[in-house]
Design a protein that fits this description.
2 strands; 37% helix; 11% strand
């Protein structure tokens, strides 16, 4: 919840969160939560966000390297 709360104080155009823990959090409207990195990967592949600074942070088990290939 602390990560979500901190992100909510920032002026971010898009917030995409991946992981089961985030689905337990109270997230502001406009934040999107994906149960796992595969769902996030699919979203990025279909939406193709451009013109954003993208920060990926996760544990090794999240396999976020698969997401970076779609950016």
């Amino acid at each position: 919840q602390k990560v979500v709360d901190k992100l909510a104080t920032m002026n971010l155009a898009m917030v995409l969160l991946a992981g089961k823990e985030f689905s337990k959090c109270l997230v502001p409207s406009g934040f999107q939560v994906f149960e796992n990195s595969a769902l996030l990967e699919n979203y990025i592949e279909n939406v193709r966000p451009r013109g954003y600074l993208i920060l990926l942070k996760g544990s090794r088990g999240m396999k976020l390297e698969n997401v970076t290939g779609k950016l």
